[in-house]
Amino acid sequence: MKKLFVEDLKVGDSVFGELFAVKNYKKTATRNNRPYIDITLSDKTGLIKGKIWSDDMKNCETVEEADIVSVSATVEEFNGPQLRVTNLSKIEKYEADDFMATSNFDIEEMWKEIGQYRSKIKNNHLKKLLDNIFDDKFTKRYKESAAAFVVHHAYRGGIQEHVLDMLAMADGVLKRYPKLNADLLITGIIVHDIGKVFDYETGTTITMTFEGRMLGHIFMGAEYVKSHAPKDMPQDLLDEVLHMILSHHGTLEFGSPVPPKTAEAVALSYLDYASFKINPAYNTIQKSEEGVQFTEYNRHLGVEFYRSPYLDELTNEDIPF
Ligand SMILES: [Fe+2]
Ligand SMILES: [Fe+2]
Question: First vs last Cα of the chain: how many Å apart?
């Protein structure tokens, strides 16, 4: 059983034989050619970077991403807490739930909710397209997948949570813009990050696959959707769905090969952005300790969030967690 979690580690602490998942492991060298290992360790509460210096390498086994390891280390200050690992060995027996964070929402309940949105789609080609994509095997993977490596929804069930964020916000957009094509927008939201199912391996930690690194989720998603299109689906309708996948990062500099060119694609890319930004802000603040004024600096978002003292006045009994 794990006793100490990443979120508990403070500069100056010593860690003896604590278990973590290996998220990243890379042999490298200093400018003077002194070898060392860059390592990132994780558990369900977060991740922490570390170094194994050449003197300590003899006490450290060579390991791979997603291995569970027993670690002895000291916590040092280097742009926040970082581990200086002095002992590391691979272990085979552990509680899987200690390592992989899971969405606060129930995986099956979220899938039911996505199903309710699917049942609103009237266009038969789009319905059939989703039926072709979501066979039992793929559905199982989609339900469990994380939506990102670290930044947002980086936990089991993350894609579903991210998609439901966007679907709920789309309800509001559709109310204000009633002539948007709701069928296309709902379909697009459900499939926009489908490539992430192949991008990441969601096991003891989230790791990137070879094809994820080489091809990226935008291409893989578009390809998967295209290859599951019903034979009689009009090409221009399929192209509108593919366009929403390809343009969902909004601009070329953020990795989309085309900018959004339909109102549905514009809406989708902003809903994606809103969910991507709100999720880490919300979770970081919720996880912070009562009484702190600012949370720890979030490197990926470039901010420390303010924890409002008025937050704890909220007593809404409908909030399930
Ligand atoms: Fe994406
Ligand atoms: Fe997304």
Answer: 24
Q: How far is the CA of 83 from the centre of ligand 1 (A)?
A: 31
Whole-number Å distance, alpha carbon 64 to ligand 2 midpoint, is: 28
Answer whether residue 149 shows pLDDT above 80: no
The Å distance, Cα 45 to ligand 1 centre, comes to 24
Both tokens of 297, joined, read: 């600096």
Distance 248 CA to ligand 1 centre (A): 7
| Residue 130 and residue 187 in contact, taking contact as beta carbons nearer than 8 Å | yes
**Closest CA relative to residue 102, chosen from 158, 61, 180:** 158
CATH 2.40.50.140 placement within the chain: 6-98
Ligand 2 centroid – CA 139 distance (Å): 17
pLDDT value, residue 319: 65
Which protein residues have a CB closer than 5 Å to ligand 2 (ion)? 193, 272
Within 8 A by CB and 6+ apart from 309, the residues are none
Q: Which CATH class is domain 6-98?
A: mainly beta
